Amino acid sequence: MTEITSIEFEKEVLQSGKVVLDFYSSECPPCEALAPKFESLAKLYGHDVKFLKIFRQKNRELADQLEVKSSPTLLFYDNGKEVGERLTGGIKRSDIIKNLNKLLPDSKVASISDKIKPIVSEYDVMILGAGPGGLTAGLYLCQAKINTVLIDIALPGGHVATTHEVSNYPGFIEPQAGYMLSHNMSEQTKLCGTAYKVAVDVTNVDLDKREVFLDEFETVKAKKIIIATGTSPNLMGIPGEKELKGKGISYCATCDAKYYGDKEVLVIGGGNSAVEESDFISKFASKITIVHQFDALTANKTAIEKLMANPKISTLLEHEPRSFKRDGDKIITEVEDLKTKKIKTLISDGVFIFIGMKPNIQLFKNKLTLDHWGYIKTDEDMRTSLPDVFAVGDVISKKYRQITTAVADGTIAAISIAKELN
Ligand SMILES: Cc1cc2nc3c(=O)[nH]c(=O)nc-3n(C[C@H](O)[C@H](O)[C@H](O)COP(=O)(O)OP(=O)(O)OC[C@H]3O[C@@H](n4cnc5c(N)ncnc54)[C@H](O)[C@@H]3O)c2cc1C
């Protein structure tokens, strides 16, 4: 793996054969999650494809020239020409493999696949998701001397790792940087001895057999499973959103706000996430307009008061985005005035979307009893409708989704399981 700068781009990328280039940033959880996948694939494909990394913050001009607007972004080149699909955000190992395989002849792809040997590992408890809920369950189970593995498609920490400040987690007098709070939670659980399999692709989950398939070659089996997969941001589902995701539209302020120094951005949403993340974005951007569908913001009072005192932030209430378009460096957002039904055009350098969350249950939703909104129903011990399958944290049906409620669920599930296994 070689690190390059923009000066070497011409020689190392444009004048080379087959290349994959990773634009990464610091303080970027998806970049950190990508790093071990990129390294392990470099070992497999490194003889045939050149694996390069470039630090986006120090090579901004090149990133802008290539229209790289999100970290991480993977670009694939064949003899100087960009080919395949650009990959951004939470990048899956299988998607990188798909793009790498397209660069190579079938015989080469077959010989590389032959090198990947299947593995099976067994534990007492497998926890899917290493956010606050999963990490707490992992800690309690480990302290009860139960052989436990934590599995996550990203690095440990969950949403807390990408929240800039947490001021309501008990035990800390001053607000804590989210990444430090999640780092401490994760280190505490790891130090106890819980096994970690993180930044993996979870390609299949069989809840009946309690088996999970990782990275298309590793099977993990357990006597009990805890689902702690949390939630993901809702998409708006309007024209232009998919196309501009990672190219001016972002769902992660800690990942991308730093690239909007002295620029103007829109924030879509009006709840706690939108309001608190706007405050963070205002450390960089010169002007922020919050576009919200209702006639008042729905965040808590303290957050709204802080926002109102921030001269960089203004609100556009009772308006809803209808489409996004790119025009040169700018994002054009068409918004509808919900009172007059008239369409307005807003021009900005970037758009951040925070319009609520949906549960991460795609891999097992048909197996479990869910509530009306698709969250997993549990009993008071965090048992789901399937034997030996528990669920905790934001993914379950409940009224309040906070770090404290997730860690409480993790505690309850772990104690219940420890009693059953002992
Ligand atoms: C912007 C923002 C700010 C917030 N601020 C606060 C705050 O100040 N205070 C507060 O108390 N709460 C806050 N919250 C809420 C808090 O972050 C959540 O309630 C808490 O993180 C929930 O923990 P969890 O473990 O259930 O899920 P998450 O934190 O969502 O973690 C879930 C984990 O599961 C992983 N995962 C997903 N799918 C799979 C899969 N198929 N297999 C394996 N792993 C998977 C994810 O990668 C993730 O690491 C905030 C949330 C957001 C979005």
Percent of residues in beta strands?
Answer: 25-35%
Q: What is the strand tally?
A: 24
In the CATH scheme, the class of the largest domain would be Alpha Beta
What form results from the Cα inertia axes?
globular
CATH architecture of the largest domain: 3-Layer(bba) Sandwich
Counted by DSSP, the helix tally is: 12
Secondary-structure content class: alpha/beta
Plain-language structure description:
This protein is an alpha/beta fold and 422 residues long. It folds into three domains: 2-115, Glutaredoxin, CATH 3.40.30.10; 119-232 and 357-421, FAD/NAD(P)-binding domain; 241-353, 3-Layer(bba) Sandwich (FAD/NAD(P)-binding domain), CATH 3.50.50.60. It is 29% helix and 30% strand. The chain contains twelve helices and 24 strands. The protein has helices spanning 6-14, 29-45, 60-65, 93-103, 106-114, 132-143, 178-192, 241-244, 253-256, 272-281, 301-308, 403-421, and strands at residues 2-4, 18-24, 50-55, 73-78, 81-88, 119-128, 148-152, 165-166, 176-177, 195-198, 202-206, 211-214, 218-227, 231-233, 249-250, 264-268, 287-292, 313-317, 319-327, 330-337, 343-348, 350-353, 357-359, 389-391. The strands form six sheets. Strands 6, 7, 10, 11, 12, 13 and 24 form a seven-stranded mixed sheet that branches. The longest helix has 19 residues, at 403-421. The radius of gyration is 22 Å and the shape is globular. The chain starts with a strand and ends with a helix. The mean pLDDT is 94. Bound molecules: flavin-adenine dinucleotide (FAD). Flavin-adenine dinucleotide (FAD) is lined by residues 128-134, 151-154, 158-160, 163, 166, 168, 202, 228-231, 273, 277, 360, 363, 393-394, 401-404, 406.
